[in-house]
Amino acid sequence: MTEAKKRDRWGPIGFILAASGSAIGLGNIVFFSANAYRYGAGAFYIPYLVALIVLGVPVMIMELGLGHRTQRAFPEALSRSVGTAGEFIGWWAVLNATIICMYYITILSWVLGMWIGAFGPLWEPKQAVEAFNLEAGSVPFSVAYFFKMITSHRVLLFVPIIWLLNVAIVWKGTKSIEAAVTLFVPLMWVMMIILIVRGLTLPNGIQGAYRLFTPDFKVIFSRPEVWHGAFGQMFFTLSLGFGIMTAYASYLPKNSDQINNSLMICCMNCGFEFIAGLAIFSLLFAFAIVPAATTFSMTFFVIPRGISEFPWGVKFFGVMFFTLLLLAGISSSISLIEAFVSAVMDKYGWSRKRTVIGFAIIGCLGSLIFAAPRIVDASLSHNGTLGLSLLDMADHWAFNYGLLLVGFCECLIIGWKYGAKRLRMFINEHSNLRLGAWFDVLIKFVAPALILIILLTNGLKWIRSGHIYGEEIIPGKSFAARLVVLAWLLFTIVGAAALTFSKTYEEEPTENNSPEASK
Ligand code: ALA
Questions:
Q1: Of 31, 59, 236, which is best to mutate to test ligand 1, by the most ligand atoms within 8 angstroms of its C-beta?
Q2: Of ligand 1's atoms, which has the minimum distance to the CA of residue 336?
Q3: How far apart are alpha carbons 393 and 135 in whole angstroms?
Q4: Looking at ligand 1, which atom is closest to the CA of residue 25?
Q5: From the CA of 428, how far away is ligand 1's center (Å)?
Q6: pLDDT band (50, 70, 90) for residue 292
Q7: 3-class DSSP state for residue 129?
Q8: Separation between Cα atoms, residue 411 and residue 417, nearest integer Å
Q9: Ligand 1 centroid from CA 122, angstroms
Q10: Which of 1, 13, 118, 486 is buried most, with the most CB atoms less than 10 Å from its CB?
């Protein structure tokens, strides 16, 4: 047997820790709060809860069920279930996840830069940004430190460091991943709880909690982008549409319960997201900070500014906040890597080490490409074509559209071609709770219809406005913008086709990979 055929197995709590660690990431701590703030706080959480129930939970059950049934990563799991079209969707998902993984690690390298700064230099009140000719004190200290850091050559060191950490964790598969998440996940919860207690006990902190949970029905029904934001966020935050959950579930023993697992992962993830939202909103309200509501400003400028106003323990809380981001981010980035590594090992029978090294070299180059423009020419940030915007543009397509399109296709092919009922029967055989026919209705009709409405409504909006990325970034018709769309399509669609047709899967099921054996 080749290495690929002796499938790794999780230990008793390895799967839940790894899957919830994958779900809990930068998305929970900063993207949720930034989205909630952007869409008016109380207007966001109702679409978010709807997305959780009609999309998050059923798609999570479906992705785990697929991995458990086939004992294979996403492309082969879909290939075994519905044939070539399924495999193509699987590779498309994994390649889209690869782009996300590259820029996710670029962001983590900036987090590492801020973490180092949090021990001292970050908090210096007056800092100049030479690259922008900004004198000391002309911009807030966190903004100055961040721009100095991301335009410096140090980032070229931070990116490989984060990649090396990831490589070390996925090096021995489930064994090394489990060891890391057993440390990371409990620590993340402890740190988050400390932060929320600190936030809510600040004078006025509790007002932030009220703001977050006061619904704003006017916005919910008048702005389609709130729904788009909530549905995109749901896929991202639960790590759905990447192939991650199927890969992780393929390492589960045959008697595991996917309904129970799905509910646990969804509850842990969304619970973490809510308490993170509470902590961040309490900070904003306690110090009356009005953020420019972008994700980066929230993470890198606004939260450090709030922490700097604490009456005591500024360095302690600052280091803790960036440690929390690093742990949460790395427990997610390893899962993005594993989605690709397990898929390639399954298809080509390569050894884990060879696959991990190959992927890390390409991935690290990709992360450097996302980091480099600012370092090469700091002034790029002023015309906004290649600085942060290269990352923004890739994120726009891979996050907002890639994940939803993959979700739409997987619901249709599993719901209609493989049969939602067939998958439900398999899942029910191994579970204490039972899925009813409502699962079929959600997967076949409700989830794809909602995703389609959201994609079309937003698509029409940018066709009318002529701004693909929203006026505040750059016009969609610019050369750079078109180039990024083309690169994204080439990498994901053409790449998926090439991987799908490059080799067919071995016909012979092995002892422990056959669907029948796992029933
Ligand atoms: N689910 C991961 C996050 O939220 C990717 O960051």
A1: 236
A2: 5
A3: 30
A4: 6
A5: 28
A6: low
A7: strand
A8: 10
A9: 26
A10: 118
The alpha carbon of 465 and the centre of ligand 1 are apart by a number of angstroms equal to 30
How far apart, in whole angstroms, are the C-alpha atoms of residue 503 and residue 43?
A: 48
Rounded-to-integer distance, Cα 81 and Cα 86, Å: 7
Centroid of ligand 1 to alpha carbon of 21 (angstroms): 9
With bands split at pLDDT 50, 70 and 90, how would you rate the model's confidence at 228?
Answer: confident
Residue 171 DSSP SS3: coil
Q: Which atom of ligand 1 is nearest to the CA of 23?
A: 1
DSSP 118: H
Who has greater pLDDT, 473 or 421?
421
**For 236-260, how does the pLDDT look when each residue is reduced to its tens digit (9 = 90+)?**
999 999 999 999 999 999 889 999 9
Residue 500 token pair? 């799908």
Per residue in 338-390, pLDDT (tens digit) is 999 999 999 999 999 999 999 999 999 999 999 988 788 776 655 556 666 78
What pLDDT sits at residue 434? 96
Q: Can you state the angle between helices 403-412 and 447-465, rounded to 10 degrees?
A: 140
Residue with tokens 């302690």: 316
Distance 23 CA to ligand 1 centre (A): 5
What is the Cα–Cα distance from 291 to 36, expressed in whole angstroms? Answer: 12
Ligand 1 nearest atom to the CA of residue 100, by list position: 5
Residue 503's identity, in one-letter code, is K
Q: Are 177 and 22 in contact (CB under 8 A)?
A: no
Structure tokens at 114: 């801020």
pTM: predicted TM-score of the whole model, two decimal places: 0.92
pLDDT at 479 > cutoff 80: no
Among 160-164, 165-169, 184-188, 295-299, whose mean pLDDT is lowest?
A: 295-299
Q: Which of 20, 22, 274 to mutate to test the pocket of ligand 1 (most atoms within 8 A of CB)?
A: 22
* 461: three-class secondary structure by DSSP: helix
The residue-averaged pLDDT of 31-46 equals 80
Please give all residues whose beta carbon lies within 6 A of any atom in ligand 1, as ranges.
Answer: 22-23, 25-28, 236-237, 239, 332
